[in-house]
Amino acid sequence: MRAEGRGGWEGLQARGRRSALAPAGENVEKAALFTVQQTFLRTKLHRATLTAADPEYEGSVTIDRALCRAAGLMEFEQVDVLDIANGARFTTYVIFGGEGEVQVNGAAARLVTPGDRVIIIAYCGLSEGEVAAHKARVVLLGEGNRIQSVADHPVREA
């Protein structure tokens, strides 16, 4: 039987690979170049006030473009939304909206109420070597979803 036709461990050995993590044609030593990443807070909009909730819209969270710019959020980026009022948490994606707008759309709109305060969080994966230079951005919002402060926080060791 040819090596290409074998599956599992035998197939890996026959093709000169000792790990399923190694891409085809590469050995384990090259596969070791892949790094382990840890997940860290990248940015958050803290205490945004929901201006609307629309369960009939396709999905997402609509956020004022200026707030996204301040936080470094991109359109269609995955975010978690945490409702301070009721403890609901869900994952969705960002679309840009008008001034002061923070609206939850789609099925998740049933988890929130306009007027609720929420935290909108985006994460990033960092390798061990990237952690020391990382700073998490926190955008604190006040009345009318106006920016009260923007701060970059370095990662501190335990």
Notes on the structure:
The protein has 158 residues and is mainly beta. It has 2 domains: 1-33, no CATH class; 37-154, Barwin-like endoglucanases. The chain is 14% helix and 41% strand. The protein has helices at 8-14, 28-31, 65-71, 128-131; strands spanning 37-49, 52-54, 61-64, 78-83, 89-97, 102-105, 117-127, 135-141, 147-154. A 9-stranded mixed β-sheet has the order 2-6-3-5-4-7-1-8-9. Strand 4 and strand 5 (89-97) form a beta hairpin. The longest helix is centred in the N-terminal third of the chain and has 7 residues, at 8-14. The radius of gyration is 22 Å and the shape is globular. Residues 1-22 have low confidence and may be disordered.
Q: What do the pLDDT scores average to?
A: 86
Largest sheet: 9 strands, mixed
Distance between the termini: 55 Å
Counted up, domains total 2
Shape: globular
Count the DSSP helices.
4
CATH architectural name of the largest domain = Beta Barrel
The low-pLDDT segments are 1-22
Q: How much helical structure, as a percent, in the residues?
A: 10-25%
Find the count of extended strands (DSSP E, 2+ residues).
9
Strand content: 35-45%
